[in-house]
Amino acid sequence: MRNLLTKVACIAAMGSAFQAPPSLLSPRQWSRRRMSAAVESIEVCQNKHCRKRGAAATLKHFDMLVDACGLDVRVGKADCSDTEHGCFDECTMGPNVRVDGGRGITNGVRGAAAAADVLGIELPDVWPPE
């Protein structure tokens, strides 16, 4: 307990130049905190193999995180019409996510924590939002 109080005192002494991590903020304060994502767009593959591995839930997690955190990130289903199989061709490692329209494919994105990691943000302490 003493270590926590010491950390809080240090944070208070640093003033506005330092933002407390979400774990030290109340849910209301956290939702007001301005966050910025490390990406501009997210596309989630919705082909049958990725859907079987939870791609619909992954897309929902991205939508919820972007809305809850007020991020300026485009989230949607991947347009893979220009590929041979209509997907990212990494089906065994899905759900697959394309970041920033081709910067890279991230495999196995399951759950809100993995979605937050792709966005480059911390998962809110209170999740899902009420």
Report Rg. 18 Å
> What is the overall pLDDT average?
75
Number of strands: 4
The helix-strand sequence is HHEHHEEEH
Topology readout:
Elements: H1 2-14, H2 27-32, E1 41-44, H3 48-52, H4 55-69, E2 74-77, E3 97-99, E4 104-106, H5 111-119
Parallel strand pairs: 1-2
Antiparallel strand pairs: 1-3, 3-4
Helix pairs in contact: 4-5
Describe the structure in your own words.
This protein is globular. The chain has 130 residues and is of the alpha+beta class. A hairpin with a 4-residue loop joins β3 and β4 (104-106). It contains five helices and four strands, in the order ααβααβββα.
Question: Care to give the gist of this entry?
Answer:
This protein has 130 residues and is of the alpha+beta class. The protein contains five helices and four strands; from the N terminus they run H-H-E-H-H-E-E-E-H.
Main attributes?
130 residues; alpha+beta; 4-stranded mixed sheet; disordered N terminus
